[in-house]
Amino acid sequence: MRSPISGYSRLTKVHKFSAAGIAAAGVAALTFAALPGGSADAQTQSIAVKPVAWNSQDLGVQDQQEQLGKQADVAMKLAKAEADKRKAEDEAKAKADKERAEKEAASRSEERKPVEQAPAAPVKKAYANNLDGWIREALDIMSAKGIPGSYDGIYRNIMRESTGNPNAINNWDSNAAAGIPSKGLLQVIDPTFKAYHVEGTSWDIYDPVANIAAACNYAAKTYGSMDNVNSAY
């Protein structure tokens, strides 16, 4: 902004400092000259006053350097903060990736782990519901229990005792007279059936398989095997 006095500019801060310095030097010179007793030589002696150098350009450079230094410090702090932030993010990402990889590996391992199969239930062998089937089923049970006997020996004695009728009963012999008639395929009396009953078979004396197994168990203890029986026993 221009001064109200035409042709003059407002003094800057630097100009004011320069003028003040020159004025101070002048006052000092006048004071020395006015001292009482001062000789003419002394009055005329010049006083060496070192002028103060005021360079507005130098002050501007210094301010700029200080400002640049402050900006550099701020920039370094911001750069360090950004670097620390990126480092923390990278470490967090690396940790997350590692945990995910470990979980996936554990999952794949679990998927590959063989599934323990429950023991298969034994398949029950099917037998025909006839004389052949009854004999074969009784033989399998006898084999598991260690009771001797053969298909031919059992078949031969069945045909003599009941002709293959599982519901046959003898109501005329001595056992019948004693009130304990012989019953079933191999004509077994109740006390004998109960005494030599084979575990896993029915307790019904007329059941074909149970009747055969009990009769063969009795014959094994008494004659060594049903194969050795060739008449009433």
Would you summarize the structure shown here?
This protein has 233 residues and is mainly alpha-helical. Helices cover 58% and strands 0% of the residues.
Largest beta-sheet characterization: none
CATH-derived topology of the largest domain: Lysozyme
- Count of domain modules: 3
Number of helices: 8
Outline: rod-shaped
The CATH level-2 architecture of the largest domain is identified as: Orthogonal Bundle
Specify the helix fraction band. 55-70%
Oligomer: single chain
End-to-end separation in angstroms reads 149 Å
- Poorly predicted sequence stretches spanning 5 or more consecutive residues: 1-56
Structural class: mainly alpha
Portion of residues in beta strands equals under 5%
- Listing every helix as H and every strand as E from the N terminus to the C terminus, the arrangement reads HHHHHHHH
CATH class of the largest domain: Mainly Alpha
| Mean pLDDT level | 79
Radius of gyration: 65 Å
Q: In total, how many beta strands? A: 0
